[in-house]
């Protein structure tokens, strides 16, 4: 949800209004496989309060998010920052996060600071506003649309 | 790439690991990886068990059953994966409001009749002299704009189909006296073919609806009750001319289907297994045929046009964009 906010507000609207797409895209399938095949020794997909879904966690201190590529890094960073924020709100302190790109053999450390927290609170209000609106946000007409599973729904 | 599987022989269908096993009566076995399956048509007598059904459900695969005579018996429609309460409420609202319902129903028929007209024009350009029939349909299409009751719309549709069917004797090279549509049971070759092919279109549409949030039982043109997934019937109207009827003309004119394709039994005509196979092959390749989509600027299959129709209806129901039915543009 947080991720979608940064990528496409319209996708966020559709998603939250229960118009979800079946993944018939190859990119999604590849993403799924990467998720399945990497970090097999860790306990994965930790769903918390039906709200956040952590890919896996180490040492009870570091949450990991697995990504296929870093093309949406900004959105990914905010996604995990939100996870840290959410955990903090529920009394879990001193959490850090790592974005893992197994295919790129790359990882990025993420921490949450005070400014981020304020930013997140603003965004949360913004998200609520977007999804409650009867009208969905307009299409973003970006080159990323062609790869999106909502492409046909948006542009037809 | 996912495929539709048509099981014509008798035998058994079961799950083994993450694959499907098709076992024919002669003992031959075929393994089908589940990832390659889109849907399955069961046309023969096939044993299935609940373990299989569960497996198919998990993978969102529909089973369509046909009886011994080739008539559609029903579908195993797995538990919905894509559900949207808010969309459902709005879909119902579009049925309950007479104005909204008529608007959608009218657009369905306008598209359907446009596609019918295109079929006639196609054959007119190939020397069949269908000017009169085309003119009749053009006029009737204008009537659609004036009708504000469902049964009146249905009446106009009946007249359009009547004029259309009358033209078939001119389109089809074979000597079949096709007077009118008879269903239970079909009384001649064309009626048998139509029944069979229409049920294929109906089931294809149903499969596509399943992969969206639309509820298949709430329809606009047809009455949502009659023991069918009536939204399928609505959308099928639009695609019958291009997927079904154009194919029937071609099958008959290329002599791929003729009198020998039928078994005469108890006054009505049933398709032989071999003929069904010919039709299914042709139908399947038709669904896979691709065209350049003007709006999406990419190639889409005929089958995918049906999915896009569902999306357009969703957008209409959500109040985003007024529904404009599919009209053949090539």
Query: Strand sequence of the main sheet of chain A, in spatial order?
Result: 1-2-3-4-5
Which quaternary structure do these chains form?
heterodimer
Q: How much beta of chain A, percentage-wise? A: 15-25%
Largest sheet of chain B: 4 strands, mixed
Which two chains form the greatest contact, residue counts included? A-B, 13 and 21 residues
Binding site for Mn(2+) (chain B): 157, 222, 237
Cofactor (chain B): Mg(2+); Mn(2+)
Family (chain B): Belongs to the CRISPR-associated endonuclease Cas1 family.
Organism (chain B): Hypnocyclicus thermotrophus
Which terms would index this structure?
heterodimer, A: 156 residues, alpha+beta, five-stranded mixed beta sheet, 5 strands, 18% strand, B: 330 residues, alpha/beta, four-stranded mixed beta sheet
Plain-language structure description:
The complex is a heterodimer of chains A (156) and B (330). Chain A is of the alpha+beta class and 156 residues long. In chain A, 43% of the residues lie in helices and 18% in strands. Chain A has helices at residues 2-7, 9-16, 26-37, 73-89, 114-132, 151-155, and strands at residues 44-48, 52-58, 62-66, 96-101, 106-110. In chain A, helix 4 links the parallel strand 3 and strand 4 (96-101). The longest helix of chain A has 19 residues, at 114-132. In chain A, 22% of the residues are buried. With 330 residues, chain B is α/β, with parallel strands linked by helices. Helices cover 50% and strands 17% of the residues of chain B. Chain B has nine helices and twelve strands. Chain B has helices spanning 50-58, 85-96, 98-124, 131-146, 150-171, 189-210, 230-253, 273-288, 302-317; strands at residues 3-7, 11-16, 19-24, 29-33, 37-42, 46-47, 62-66, 72-76, 262-265, 268-271, 290-293, 298-301. In chain B, the strands form four sheets. Chain B has a four-stranded mixed sheet, with helices on both faces. A four-stranded mixed sheet of chain B has the order 4-3-2-6. A two-stranded antiparallel sheet of chain B has the order 9-10. The two termini of chain B are 26 Å apart. The mean pLDDT of chain B is 93. Chain A binds chain B through residues 17-20, 22, 134-136, 151-153, 155-156, and chain B through 60, 81-87, 211, 213, 295-296, 307-308, 311-312, 314-315, 318-320. Chain B: GO terms for molecular function: DNA binding; DNA endonuclease activity; hydrolase activity; metal ion binding. Chain B: It holds the Pfam family Cas_Cas1. Chain B: Its cofactor is Mg(2+); Mn(2+).
